[in-house]
Amino acid sequence: xxxxxxxxxxxxxxxxxxxxxxxxxxxxxxxxxxxxxxxxxxxxxxxxxxxxxxxxxxxxxxxxxxxxxxxxxxxxxxxxxxxxxxxxxxxxxxxxxxxxxxxxxxxxxxxxxxxxxxxxxxxxxxxxxxxxxxxxxxxxxxxxxxxxxxxxxxxxxxxxxxxxxxxxxxxxxxxxxxxxxxxxxxxxxxxxxxxxxxxxxxxxxxxxxxxxxxxxxxxxxxxxxxxxxxxxxxxxxxxxxxxxxxxxxxxxxxxxxxxxxxxxxxxxxxxxxxxxxxxxxxxxxxxxxxxxxxxxxxxxxxxxxxxxxxxxxxxxxxxxxxxxxxxxxxxxxxxxxxxxxxxxxxxxxxxxxxxxxxxxxxxxxxxxxxxxxxxxxxxxxxxxxxxxx
Length: 389
Description:
The protein contains 7 helices and 15 strands. By secondary structure, the chain is an alpha+beta fold.
């Protein structure tokens, strides 16, 4: 449902972006069911929207990606295209070809799968004036929640934010404090404003997932805001945005005035007008603690699995919503020892929690390892693998 804004809201340009989500069959299998996969995808879109609602672009509040038009699956023929070569670049090309074949005119389309891309968690074309990215050719983005790599929900959310940032024109933030002009610091010292800091960590567009953590991990740097601002200044680059968003029955989101939302057609529990059918309590399409017979689960079914950072959660027999799990193990290592748990999430940088600034080691053997600035030198705390975005 839309959010109310104050007088600084963008009201002179279109800002609502319709989103279509494509779930690969291997992601559905990994999540246990289409309902579970759908809920995981929607939670990530909600997080994306919450961040952009608070992001100021050109000194105005930014885009809204809440308007999800549909959750799609692929045909068997389309699935076979992905199986020919398991490569992130090729899969992104295939996905964009499928979008054109389907004539998908949403301003953003997201593919979620569970392929193992050897450390690559997401991929997208950077939005440019030449027509790639948002509202243009190759506007689809690919993210993976691989079966073979333990990816937390918080990291999954960060990868989605990062890839959407690319389609809105953002390049990677510089890796270190900039003292001179270099590949990652094209403007020299002026680019230091985009590197993050010791206390709050790196920003969304930092190129290495191992550094996601800290207060900045849900924020775009000044460089990213400038990149996005230039895109929003070009009307042709935001032509797929709309100026308003009404409540939409059929987008799988239970919004104001709706009792359920089954998607594009009614199901056994919910009508096509988003109202529960007679004698039905809920729809499993929308809630994890709802049975297939449209009743609230009373068997204490597990609805959240235990992770390093939070406990398992069970249906309480009262609500169709899954109760929030109990937070566990604050400051325990997670994400390949690159982060620590805080308030049930694996989000904080290990270096920052131990009181050290993070740094990029110059040793080739440590490029994919979390390293911290200790006693004036870049040293590793824990030799674990990292991932790229």
